[in-house]
Amino acid sequence: MGKNTFDIIFLNARPGAGKSEVIDFFKKTPVEERKKLFHIGEFEEIDDFPMLWTWFEEDHILEKILGKPRLHSTEDAYFKHPYLWHLLIERICLEYSKKLRDHENYHDKYTNIIEFSRGAEHGGYKEAYEHINEDMLKKAVILYVNVSFSESLRKNRRRFNPNKPDSILEHGLPDEKVEKLYKEIDWEEFKGKNPEYIEIKGIKVPYIVFENEDDVTTNKPDLLEKRLKEVIPKLWELKSKYSGA
After folding, report:
1. What is the pTM of this model?
2. Buried b (16+ CB within 10 A) or exposed e, 121-148
C-alpha cells in the first residue's frame, strides 16, 4: 500500500481569507481521522509571516532603541526593496531543507504546510513560485482559499488584535496597506486555464480552489469540515494523477 498523505501543501490566499483557520482546524482534528479524511498525518508548518514580523521588530529596535538605520522596512512599514518578498520565499525553502536534513525520510511521517500571501504589487504568485526549488514543486500541491478583496478587507479588520500584532490568528494590516499590497492579485493569471494543475518550471503542480466568500472558516466548524471534505479528496486525486509530472 502506497503512502496516503501529502508531502507539501502550499496554502495561498489574500490576507484574512482563512488560511490560518484552515490550519487550526487540521490541528484540532485527531491525527488518524485527519489521515483518513484529508491525507494529512503529522504535520509541520512554515509561514513567512513570523519571518517578516521579526524584520519589523528588528527595525523598530534599530531605529528607536539603538538609533541606527532600519534594515528592511520604511518608517511606515513597507519593505525597502521588492526583492525582500523573494527573500522570504528563499527562507521558506531553507527552512524546509533543514527539516529534510534533520529527519530521515521526513515525509514518511510529516506533511509540510507552507503558508503565504502574495499580491501583484510585489511580484505575485508567478514570481514567488519561481523561487521554489524543483524538488519541492514535484512533491507539492496548492490549496488556494478564494475570497474577494472586499471580503479580505472585512476579515482583516475583524481579526486584528492590536495587543497581539505578532499573532498568527490575530494579526492584521491597516486598510491602506491591504489595498496597496493585496487589492490586485495575479492568481487567475498564475493558475492559467488548466483546471487541474499549474505548470511551474515545467512541473505540473496540482491545485484546487477552496471558495470562502461565505466565510465558513470563522466559527463554523461543521461547514468548514464539510467544505474541506469536498475539496481535499479531489486534491488528493489530482496529486495521485500528476505526482512528479
Report:
1. 0.91
2. bbbbbbbbbebbeeebbbbbbbbbbbbe
Could you give the CA distance from residue 134 to residue 125 in angstroms, rounded to a whole number? Answer: 16
Give the integer Cα–Cα distance in Å for 154 and 205. 31
Per-residue pLDDT of the chain (245 residues; tens, 9 = 90+): 468 999 999 999 998 899 989 999 999 999 999 999 999 999 999 999 899 889 988 999 999 999 999 999 998 888 999 999 999 999 999 999 999 999 999 999 999 999 999 999 889 999 999 999 999 999 999 999 999 988 888 876 665 445 545 443 344 567 777 778 888 999 999 999 999 999 999 999 999 999 999 999 999 999 999 999 999 999 999 999 997 55
List the chain domain ranges.
8-48+90-242
The answer to whether the beta carbons of residues 136 and 96 sit under 8 Å apart is yes
Q: Where are the alpha helices (DSSP H) in the chain?
A: 19-28, 31-38, 48-60, 83-102, 106-109, 124-129, 134-139, 149-159, 175-182, 187-191, 221-242
Return d(Cα 55, Cα 48) in angstroms, integer: 11
Q: By the 8 A CB rule, do 224 and 231 touch?
A: no
Domain topology for 8-48+90-242:
Rossmann fold (3.40.50)
